[in-house]
Specification:
Layout (H helix, E strand, L loop, with lengths): L2 H11 L1 E2 L1 H10 L5 H15 L4 E2 L4
Parallel strand pairs: 1-2
Amino acid sequence: MNLGSLFLESVSTGIITSEELDWVTNNQRDFSRIEEATALRLGRLLDGGLIHLGCRI
């Protein structure tokens, strides 16, 4: 899995799955500075209600 593609998929659908969120938290120690900034942006979008925790069909 790639954080950039996960971010784009989440922004375009408005949904992130719990498995994807688990992947982000489990791999954050290996992120580059750009990936860290992307993960923070993803978290802010979750907090702001623009992305919801759910499932994609």
